[in-house]
Design a protein that fits this description.
The chain is elongated. 0% of the residues are buried. The protein has 109 residues and is mainly alpha-helical. The longest helix has 27 residues. It contains three helices and two strands.
């Protein structure tokens, strides 16, 4: 890896303390019933969660490349097939010889 070039004039450093963080607005404080007051509207936890999930989904659709979406669909397919196989093993069992034996008897082996 090539060494990084440094500029001839280093950036000035400040010895002053950074400004303190402003306190959070009082309108965002949670109320007694679990809602959060925001700009005159009360937002419940479920609505807030829905807004978060919708925001994540919109960002995923807008910013994710098509190849990554294709890989994600394939991974979802694998999870689905694994779930189906798990349910089959729970319901029918996974003793393979029994299945082979029954199919062989049907064929006259």
């Amino acid at each position: 890896m090539a060494p990084k070039h440094r500029s001839a004039n280093p950036p000035p450093t400040s010895t002053a303390a950074p400004p303190p963080n402003p306190p959070p607005p009082a309108s965002r404080a949670p109320t007694r019933d679990g809602t959060i007051a925001s700009k005159g509207k009360a937002v419940t936890g479920r609505q807030n969660m829905t807004a978060i999930v919708q925001g994540v989904w919109d960002g995923y659709v807008a910013k994710t490349p098509q190849r990554t979406k294709l890989v994600d669909v394939f991974m979802a397919f694998l999870v689905f097939v694994g779930g189906v196989q798990f349910v089959y093993c729970v319901l029918a069992g996974n003793y393979v010889r029994r299945c082979v034996f029954y199919s062989c008897c049907d064929m006259g082996c």
